[in-house]
Design brief:
Elements lengths: L1 H12 L29 H13 L5 H10 L1 H9 L9 H19 L20 H9 L1 H7 L1 H11 L6 H21 L1 H6 L4 H24 L4 H31 L4
Helix pairs in contact: 3-4, 4-9, 4-11, 5-7, 5-9, 8-9, 8-12, 9-11, 11-12
Amino acid sequence: MEVTSKKVSRQKNRTVCKNCNTPCKGNYCYHCGQATATRQLEVKPLLWEAFFSVVDVNQGFIFTLKSLCIKPGEAIREYIEGRRIKYYPPHKYVLLIGAVAAFFSTRYHFFSGQPTSGILSIASDSRLAGFWLYADTYTTLINIITIPVFAIFSWLLRRKAYNYAENIVLNTYITSQQLLLFVSMVPLFECYSTTPRYVINFYVVVTLLYNVWVYKQFFGFKRWTGVLCAAFMMFSAYICQFLLNLLFFVVAKNLDVL
Protein backbone atom coordinates (compact mmCIF):
# COMPACT_ATOMS: atom_id res chain seq x y z
CA MET A 1 0.00 0.00 0.00
CA GLU A 2 2.83 2.37 0.86
CA VAL A 3 4.61 1.74 -2.45
CA THR A 4 1.37 2.28 -4.39
CA SER A 5 0.61 5.55 -2.61
CA LYS A 6 4.10 6.82 -3.39
CA LYS A 7 3.63 6.06 -7.09
CA VAL A 8 0.31 7.90 -7.15
CA SER A 9 1.85 10.83 -5.29
CA ARG A 10 4.72 11.08 -7.75
CA GLN A 11 2.28 11.05 -10.68
CA LYS A 12 0.15 13.80 -9.17
CA ASN A 13 3.15 16.00 -8.43
CA ARG A 14 4.67 15.55 -11.88
CA THR A 15 4.91 18.97 -13.57
CA VAL A 16 6.99 18.18 -16.67
CA CYS A 17 5.43 16.56 -19.73
CA LYS A 18 7.25 13.36 -20.67
CA ASN A 19 6.45 13.91 -24.33
CA CYS A 20 7.70 17.47 -24.93
CA ASN A 21 9.36 18.38 -21.60
CA THR A 22 7.07 21.37 -21.17
CA PRO A 23 6.36 22.46 -17.57
CA CYS A 24 2.64 22.06 -17.02
CA LYS A 25 -0.11 21.89 -14.44
CA GLY A 26 -3.23 19.78 -14.35
CA ASN A 27 -3.95 16.44 -15.96
CA TYR A 28 -2.87 17.31 -19.52
CA CYS A 29 -0.01 19.17 -21.15
CA TYR A 30 -1.22 22.46 -22.63
CA HIS A 31 1.45 22.25 -25.36
CA CYS A 32 0.99 18.76 -26.84
CA GLY A 33 -2.12 17.46 -25.07
CA GLN A 34 -0.58 14.34 -23.56
CA ALA A 35 -1.70 13.24 -20.10
CA THR A 36 0.75 14.36 -17.44
CA ALA A 37 0.36 11.10 -15.50
CA THR A 38 1.58 8.13 -17.55
CA ARG A 39 1.63 4.61 -16.19
CA GLN A 40 3.93 1.74 -17.03
CA LEU A 41 2.54 -0.27 -19.94
CA GLU A 42 0.88 -3.57 -19.06
CA VAL A 43 -0.71 -6.25 -21.23
CA LYS A 44 -4.32 -6.02 -20.02
CA PRO A 45 -4.68 -2.21 -20.25
CA LEU A 46 -2.89 -2.30 -23.61
CA LEU A 47 -5.38 -4.80 -25.03
CA TRP A 48 -8.33 -2.78 -23.75
CA GLU A 49 -6.87 0.38 -25.25
CA ALA A 50 -6.45 -1.36 -28.62
CA PHE A 51 -10.03 -2.62 -28.50
CA PHE A 52 -11.58 0.72 -27.58
CA SER A 53 -9.45 2.59 -30.12
CA VAL A 54 -11.27 0.56 -32.79
CA VAL A 55 -14.74 0.22 -31.29
CA ASP A 56 -14.59 3.47 -29.30
CA VAL A 57 -17.95 3.08 -27.57
CA ASN A 58 -17.71 6.72 -26.49
CA GLN A 59 -18.08 7.73 -30.13
CA GLY A 60 -21.43 5.97 -30.40
CA PHE A 61 -20.77 2.52 -31.84
CA ILE A 62 -23.63 0.87 -29.96
CA PHE A 63 -25.93 3.83 -30.56
CA THR A 64 -25.14 3.79 -34.29
CA LEU A 65 -25.72 0.06 -34.56
CA LYS A 66 -29.08 0.34 -32.80
CA SER A 67 -30.15 3.37 -34.83
CA LEU A 68 -29.29 1.67 -38.13
CA CYS A 69 -31.49 -1.24 -37.12
CA ILE A 70 -34.48 0.79 -35.89
CA LYS A 71 -34.52 4.01 -37.95
CA PRO A 72 -31.66 3.75 -40.45
CA GLY A 73 -32.74 6.39 -42.95
CA GLU A 74 -33.39 9.02 -40.30
CA ALA A 75 -30.12 8.25 -38.50
CA ILE A 76 -28.04 8.55 -41.67
CA ARG A 77 -29.78 11.78 -42.62
CA GLU A 78 -29.01 13.20 -39.18
CA TYR A 79 -25.33 12.35 -39.61
CA ILE A 80 -25.17 13.91 -43.07
CA GLU A 81 -26.96 17.06 -41.93
CA GLY A 82 -24.35 17.67 -39.24
CA ARG A 83 -25.57 16.00 -36.04
CA ARG A 84 -22.60 13.64 -35.91
CA ILE A 85 -21.18 13.58 -32.40
CA LYS A 86 -23.38 10.69 -31.25
CA TYR A 87 -22.74 8.53 -34.32
CA TYR A 88 -19.84 6.24 -35.12
CA PRO A 89 -17.99 7.41 -38.27
CA PRO A 90 -19.09 5.47 -41.37
CA HIS A 91 -15.59 4.50 -42.56
CA LYS A 92 -14.62 3.05 -39.18
CA TYR A 93 -18.00 1.35 -38.85
CA VAL A 94 -17.77 -0.48 -42.17
CA LEU A 95 -14.15 -1.53 -41.60
CA LEU A 96 -14.88 -2.92 -38.15
CA ILE A 97 -17.92 -4.95 -39.20
CA GLY A 98 -16.23 -5.86 -42.47
CA ALA A 99 -13.31 -7.42 -40.62
CA VAL A 100 -15.68 -9.69 -38.69
CA ALA A 101 -17.58 -10.57 -41.87
CA ALA A 102 -14.33 -11.43 -43.66
CA PHE A 103 -13.43 -13.93 -40.94
CA PHE A 104 -16.77 -15.76 -41.11
CA SER A 105 -17.05 -15.72 -44.91
CA THR A 106 -13.77 -17.58 -45.33
CA ARG A 107 -14.70 -20.01 -42.57
CA TYR A 108 -18.21 -20.95 -43.69
CA HIS A 109 -18.04 -20.47 -47.48
CA PHE A 110 -21.52 -19.01 -47.72
CA PHE A 111 -21.64 -18.92 -51.51
CA SER A 112 -19.08 -21.39 -52.83
CA GLY A 113 -19.70 -24.19 -50.35
CA GLN A 114 -23.05 -25.23 -51.79
CA PRO A 115 -24.80 -25.00 -55.17
CA THR A 116 -27.18 -22.08 -55.31
CA SER A 117 -30.82 -22.27 -56.18
CA GLY A 118 -33.95 -20.17 -56.03
CA ILE A 119 -33.08 -16.48 -56.22
CA LEU A 120 -29.45 -17.17 -57.09
CA SER A 121 -30.14 -19.99 -59.56
CA ILE A 122 -29.55 -17.62 -62.46
CA ALA A 123 -25.89 -17.52 -61.43
CA SER A 124 -25.46 -21.14 -60.33
CA ASP A 125 -23.70 -22.28 -63.49
CA SER A 126 -20.77 -24.54 -62.69
CA ARG A 127 -18.54 -22.24 -64.72
CA LEU A 128 -19.08 -19.59 -62.04
CA ALA A 129 -17.79 -21.81 -59.22
CA GLY A 130 -14.55 -19.85 -59.19
CA PHE A 131 -16.44 -16.58 -58.97
CA TRP A 132 -18.40 -17.72 -55.91
CA LEU A 133 -15.15 -18.79 -54.26
CA TYR A 134 -13.80 -15.32 -55.03
CA ALA A 135 -16.97 -13.84 -53.49
CA ASP A 136 -16.40 -15.86 -50.32
CA THR A 137 -12.74 -14.93 -50.06
CA TYR A 138 -13.20 -11.21 -50.66
CA THR A 139 -16.72 -10.61 -49.35
CA THR A 140 -15.86 -7.47 -47.42
CA LEU A 141 -13.68 -6.03 -50.17
CA ILE A 142 -16.37 -6.65 -52.80
CA ASN A 143 -18.99 -4.88 -50.70
CA ILE A 144 -16.76 -1.91 -49.95
CA ILE A 145 -15.51 -1.28 -53.49
CA THR A 146 -19.07 -1.36 -54.83
CA ILE A 147 -20.21 1.43 -52.48
CA PRO A 148 -19.45 4.09 -55.15
CA VAL A 149 -21.64 2.17 -57.61
CA PHE A 150 -24.64 2.22 -55.28
CA ALA A 151 -23.90 5.86 -54.47
CA ILE A 152 -24.30 6.78 -58.14
CA PHE A 153 -27.74 5.19 -58.34
CA SER A 154 -28.95 6.64 -55.03
CA TRP A 155 -27.64 10.06 -56.08
CA LEU A 156 -29.77 9.84 -59.22
CA LEU A 157 -32.87 9.56 -57.00
CA ARG A 158 -32.46 13.04 -55.52
CA ARG A 159 -29.60 14.81 -57.26
CA LYS A 160 -30.54 18.24 -55.91
CA ALA A 161 -31.04 17.13 -52.31
CA TYR A 162 -27.73 15.35 -51.58
CA ASN A 163 -24.40 15.39 -53.37
CA TYR A 164 -22.39 12.34 -54.38
CA ALA A 165 -20.16 12.37 -51.28
CA GLU A 166 -23.23 12.33 -49.03
CA ASN A 167 -24.55 9.37 -50.98
CA ILE A 168 -21.23 7.63 -50.36
CA VAL A 169 -21.89 8.00 -46.62
CA LEU A 170 -25.46 6.75 -47.05
CA ASN A 171 -24.37 3.60 -48.84
CA THR A 172 -21.40 3.03 -46.54
CA TYR A 173 -23.76 2.69 -43.59
CA ILE A 174 -26.09 0.47 -45.64
CA THR A 175 -23.20 -1.78 -46.66
CA SER A 176 -22.12 -2.05 -43.03
CA GLN A 177 -25.55 -3.31 -42.03
CA GLN A 178 -25.55 -5.78 -44.90
CA LEU A 179 -22.26 -7.18 -43.63
CA LEU A 180 -23.70 -7.27 -40.11
CA LEU A 181 -26.65 -9.30 -41.38
CA PHE A 182 -24.13 -11.50 -43.15
CA VAL A 183 -22.44 -12.22 -39.81
CA SER A 184 -25.75 -12.76 -38.02
CA MET A 185 -26.56 -15.61 -40.43
CA VAL A 186 -23.83 -17.79 -38.92
CA PRO A 187 -26.18 -19.44 -36.37
CA LEU A 188 -28.65 -20.16 -39.19
CA PHE A 189 -25.91 -21.87 -41.17
CA GLU A 190 -25.13 -23.97 -38.12
CA CYS A 191 -28.79 -24.97 -37.73
CA TYR A 192 -29.51 -25.48 -41.44
CA SER A 193 -26.16 -26.75 -42.65
CA THR A 194 -27.84 -29.26 -44.97
CA THR A 195 -29.96 -26.62 -46.72
CA PRO A 196 -27.83 -23.45 -46.77
CA ARG A 197 -29.42 -22.21 -50.00
CA TYR A 198 -32.53 -21.20 -48.03
CA VAL A 199 -30.40 -19.10 -45.71
CA ILE A 200 -28.71 -17.42 -48.67
CA ASN A 201 -32.08 -16.68 -50.26
CA PHE A 202 -33.30 -15.26 -46.96
CA TYR A 203 -30.22 -13.04 -46.79
CA VAL A 204 -30.79 -11.73 -50.32
CA VAL A 205 -34.46 -10.92 -49.67
CA VAL A 206 -33.80 -9.16 -46.35
CA THR A 207 -30.92 -7.19 -47.88
CA LEU A 208 -33.09 -5.95 -50.73
CA LEU A 209 -35.93 -4.98 -48.40
CA TYR A 210 -33.53 -3.21 -46.04
CA ASN A 211 -32.13 -1.13 -48.90
CA VAL A 212 -35.58 -0.02 -49.99
CA TRP A 213 -36.56 0.76 -46.40
CA VAL A 214 -33.47 2.94 -45.87
CA TYR A 215 -33.96 4.82 -49.13
CA LYS A 216 -37.61 5.43 -48.28
CA GLN A 217 -36.73 6.88 -44.87
CA PHE A 218 -33.68 8.79 -46.01
CA PHE A 219 -35.23 10.48 -49.02
CA GLY A 220 -38.61 10.86 -47.34
CA PHE A 221 -40.66 9.12 -50.00
CA LYS A 222 -44.35 9.31 -49.12
CA ARG A 223 -45.87 7.80 -52.24
CA TRP A 224 -45.45 4.34 -53.68
CA THR A 225 -44.08 5.84 -56.88
CA GLY A 226 -41.03 7.05 -54.97
CA VAL A 227 -40.59 3.68 -53.26
CA LEU A 228 -40.87 1.84 -56.57
CA CYS A 229 -38.35 4.23 -58.10
CA ALA A 230 -35.96 3.54 -55.22
CA ALA A 231 -36.45 -0.21 -55.67
CA PHE A 232 -35.75 0.08 -59.39
CA MET A 233 -32.54 2.05 -58.78
CA MET A 234 -31.44 -0.43 -56.15
CA PHE A 235 -32.01 -3.45 -58.40
CA SER A 236 -30.14 -1.66 -61.18
CA ALA A 237 -27.24 -1.02 -58.81
CA TYR A 238 -27.16 -4.69 -57.76
CA ILE A 239 -27.08 -5.86 -61.36
CA CYS A 240 -24.39 -3.33 -62.22
CA GLN A 241 -22.17 -4.24 -59.27
CA PHE A 242 -22.57 -7.97 -60.00
CA LEU A 243 -21.50 -7.49 -63.61
CA LEU A 244 -18.57 -5.28 -62.57
CA ASN A 245 -17.40 -7.85 -60.03
CA LEU A 246 -17.77 -10.62 -62.58
CA LEU A 247 -15.76 -8.60 -65.09
CA PHE A 248 -13.08 -7.90 -62.50
CA PHE A 249 -12.93 -11.59 -61.62
CA VAL A 250 -12.53 -12.65 -65.27
CA VAL A 251 -9.80 -10.07 -65.91
CA ALA A 252 -7.97 -10.93 -62.69
CA LYS A 253 -8.23 -14.63 -63.51
CA ASN A 254 -6.76 -14.12 -66.97
CA LEU A 255 -3.92 -12.08 -65.50
CA ASP A 256 -3.31 -14.75 -62.82
CA VAL A 257 -3.88 -12.19 -60.08
CA LEU A 258 -6.36 -14.47 -58.27
